[in-house]
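Entry for the shared binder. Reason: the reviewer on the internal report wants the predicted structure included alongside the sequence.
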Amino acid sequence: MPGRIGPRGCAFSAFSQSGQDALYGAPQGPNAPAQILSQDRKTLIDVLLAEAPSAKDTKSMKNADSLNPSEDDLLAIALGAPARRVLTRCDAIGPRTGWRDGYLSTRYGFIPPDPNASPTALLQSPGRVWSDLCSRLPGLVPRGNVRVRILDLPFIEGSPEVIPDQALWAACVCLGILASTWRYEEANDGREGIVNAATSPGTFLNAAGNLDEEPETRGLPRNIAIPLRTVCLRLGRPLPFLSQSDVSIYNYKLRDPTSVVPYPERAENMDLRWPVFKDRSEAMFLLCMAEVHGCFAPAVDIIACCQECVMERDNERLVYELVRLRQVIDQLPHIFHKISVNPSSGENFAHPVEWGQRYAKWSAPLSKRVPALSGLFLPLFQLMDVFLGRTKYDSFLGLESLHLRQWMPPAIRAFCAAIEQYYSVPDFVKASGDPRLVAVLEGLVESYTGERGFMGTHRYKVYGFLEVVAKTGRVETNGGAGSMDTAGRPWEQVHRTLSDSMLERLEPYRSATLTVAPHDMRGSFEECRFKACIHARTAIDRDPSRATCKVTIDLRDTGMTFQPGDRLAIMPLNPWLDVEQTAQILQLVDILDQSVPLQGSAPWMRFARHIGEVYRDKPLQLTVRDILRRGRLSPLSKEMVAWVHSQTRSASPRLHAILSSSTWPIMASIADLLHTIRPEVPDNVWNRAFPTTELSWLCPLISIEIPRTYSISSYSADEWMPGQLDITVARAAHRISELVNVAGDSSHLRLRPGVCSSFLNPHPTTRLPHPLIRGNDREEILVGLSRPLNFQLPASKAAPILMFAGGSGIAPFRGFWQARCHEESVGRNVLFLGVQSREKLVYYDELVEHVRDGKLELHVAFSRDTTGLVYDPYSREMRERPGTTPSYIDSKITEQGSTICDILMSTTIGGYGGYLYICGSVALYDTVMSALRRAIYACRATTAEATSKILDMAFAERRLMLDIFMTPRPVCESDFPIITPSQLAQCTGHRSSGESSRYWIGVHGRVYDVTEFLSIHPGGSLIVAASAGMDASRTFDEVAHTGNPEVSALLAKYFIGVLAPKPTFRNNIISDLYDTWYDYLRTCVENLTTLSFEVSALMDDERVWSAGGLINITGVRKFYQFQSRLLQNGFPTLFGSRLNELHLKLTFALLQSHATNQMVPDIVGNVSRALSSPPAVRTRNAIAQVGEFVEDTGSALAFEKGIISYAKSVTEIDIQFLEKIRGEICNGMDVFYKIRDRRGTVGDKHLTRSVALALLTCLERVSQRLQNFFTDLAARSPINPRLENNPARGFWGMVARRIRDGSFFLYTSDENVVEDGSASSKTRFIHRQSITVAQLVNQSVDSISASGVQSELKGETDFKPRRLADAHLQRGKMSRIGTSYDEAVNRNASKRMSTLLAMNWQGAVPVRNQSATAETKTRQKFAEGRGSQLFSVPMSPTGRIVSIGRAN
């Protein structure tokens, strides 16, 4: 009966509820009837007693009461799922109350249903003045007078009578932005750097008329502080704060509300409603956060449906809902990649330096008590954590997540609590034992928190971004990761912190295998978490040898889903013939089923536990057959050969010759190696090396294979959970090395097929081994899904696509054309294919069918066939053309050049903005790219530079995507030059010409010139450039590039030489000096590269210095803070404690070599004198003048061109200075490589003395260059009226300034001002000054005391983790000398100095007040030498060390 009021808690459709009873009663809102009817269709019996209990369960029961459902279950089913109740309540109450409880709805998830509703309501209220002022911020911030405009605002209360509920969220965002901008401008007013005289914040009265002492609003004017408190309280916030959701999810407006595919809230379809700086760094970060929640909107309802499925015990529907949820999560990683650090990416470009120096400082919280602007506050993370059953929150980010959840809107907290506390989906799935449910949930976990999923993508994005940002003023993430770093490389600490958080999320699902960091799982067996089997192998061409075939994988009960472009990771199984040969030579044929002890082999133990998790069983006992079948039998690595050499006690000359090879890996198998050396090894040695009675040697000999990835060649059109998939496998082959004999029957052949390809696609005539070797014919394989983020179809069906493939590179494109044809895409699908001959053209019948239907355009080039295939666009037929000259794919690209150019070019320059995909070998990639350049040059561009810009734009916009593969080839390193660290350090790419214009990086002992690769690097050019000139192996490992075959394939193209390894020194002192000096060189190169980033961001963009035709104070502020950081301590990582540490080590090395001299160069004194010299004082005064312009913006107008010219010349001097320092340190680095050949002719002590003398000379020249640096800077001035458009105004302004500061009558002559940005003056070296060793020790003690590490070493410092808000508040201040990164580097150097003094100088710590005693000890310890003569080393006029030997 409609309208009938039921009792509280009634959940039947015949009754309704009123008022607050609706919370526990029937669903309310427009969709309530449908929800109720769906629940009413099932009785309680259908849900809870659908099947009779089994006889097995009831047979032994004496009391059967437990067979009946509990009253709690009955009540829960009657009332409905708690999560659904929360959603229903929000849907009903939210629109009426302005969503005061928080934005949460069934249809829109966590985003506002109408992003214009609350801002429009605010505009219609007196609070419009807040919105209007926020809209003007991008114009006011460059002027530096935001605080003046805030003080001009009228006082408006935040009460309901003034600000309606509908306007509350907009009011909260506007007032929070104004408060944060006030604090930002107050902390960056020109008094935070060289001036170092920050003013105290103003005092204002609160609503009661008393001084406002609350930390959140202290110092804020009452016209924003009082309404901010009122508005926040009405939104359920006990204290006022600005959250990450406020500035992102609630701060956007849609460009085109009708653009809804795949969802409206896309970064390219949004703008920030109230930006502060209006730069793309700020916009991309906040808009991508909003887009993530727009994409996630359906997931909220899906998660509620999952809880309902658990309540109703509906396995079938739960599988369906979990698959839907994974499809949503799978889209999220692509959003992160929209944030690009590639300058050619247009609106997507987010400059790390810009973000770190502006928005990151602005985002400091109002106080340490309230939440910081952290991504952890976003509802998506909180909801997914509770849904997936996260129970561990012990990490820094875990604890912070719990803290932030307490401050989230009440509705969101209620929804998370309903998911967390009732009807756990993971628990239900585990208890069900349904293999499909288990597999689908496993896939969801991987998609969200896995290494290649959403969290892994986020971690790698943060790593590359922060490596640049950390050295330019910002260390931690907005989530606080990295804020407690003590190693001096905070971006790595961030990586570890985020890894810890990932492991906590994975813990309920990987408890047995979580013994390594997440990035170590990438490219390993950990990625293959599903079991499958091969269903069929099908020929797809006319080749009788079936070199390429289609392999169908049975996915039943795996729960795996995939989409076009995905790859299948397969753990390969060695071919049975290789297993047979290895077993025979090792005499293992009769014990193949014997268990192998895994103790002492951590990788194999992890693998055994992994197998147990996949099979839902206890860890398996691996047998000999398992090891031989799943281990790496070929090719031969140097480590494997060395192990065999050690085991056989060097008994084989052939083995020694193999080990001496300069080409690795060696293309041969273990069986080949053992077959080669067996005749040379005595039986007793062989039996001791490989005993069959004890098999502990087998795991060290054979390591675990790594997965191979194959592009999926099918599309599941109608199945939401496909039962099978296809891959296209071309059988690879390699030539066996001449160093070994070939084992087995094929000894007359020196070709052997690849491991995985021959397993998946064996030759039709392959002989099967004896059944004893083969065992079970039907073997299951481990598989996993790998989703390349840069090889996916466009979201728009209208976008045209171009596909370029060679041979088996057609594999992913079969899924592409199947998907596009099934979805009836209107965009053109054009395939360019390069094949050897007609016999090897795969999928021909399928291709021709799509061509005839007009759904595909095909252009084929045969390189070894004279009968061509030509596409006829009119008849839509592929026509044979005999007598065609063989050609390659580039000829077809040239023929279709005009069409390709139209599709390739961006819509911003008149093209179609189509998508290009290249799949094949490195050679194919080179061919296609070369042909594309020729086509663009011939049809559209007029210069090579314009051609490159068109291609670079396509890469930057992620419309040109690569899937490059290669067969690993051995490299003979002796054919390439050896490159020393000093040569590598010269190629940092920061100059436009010369040696420094090339980008070289070192990776695992090899050097690559990646200059041409920068523009196509998926992570952005700045990420690669940050590692230029250095050994980037550590970074390479951290971002999981080492085991990535695609990365290896591309790197092989840029290989130029071998990185010289550290020389082997018999003397530990020299070895330690090498490590310290190498570290110093790396620090210098890092300083140079990141300094060039800052200078580029500061000087290359005119918008930094000009806004609306007037000087932009933002640029003046950035330059002032940048130069202040350098001058306050003279490049602290180079001239702080690190320099003192080096000086101390070199001096002690001299003393330990029995040098008789007591005087050493006063290197630290040179630095101190330079910092206090008159040129340094003049330089700091000039920078202080720039700081005054930040505070007094009006006076800057009179010296606009002078300020910009000054900034340009000063930053150029900065870079030139670091280039000279790099040169001096490289000279010292070369010393170590010059002495390699003299180790046998010079005594250790004499060699130590010579090296220490040479390095001290280099270090002295480094310290002296600081004086020259200040001299060059002092010749420049920001006040130069002659450069201004109105010189008279500039001169009068200068006179007025001098009258105000009292210096007018002190000047009797004109200043000597350098007007241009020419290079610095000629280098001048000051007269050498010397000190005693005791004085040096005193300097070191002073440095240690100043750093504060003594109390830290004694345990007096409290290092409890800071709250996230503490880290943000500290970051918002400019009180520290240098960056946190600088401080960490110097702190660590001070710790090492303290340890060094404790080991080498007794009583050093209290030396500060006992210099006479220390001097006496020095005289007693070391014999008196040659008076005050200084250590020296011969140097050339250019500063090069000409010899190493006895000092003059």
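Summary line for the report: The mean pLDDT is 80.
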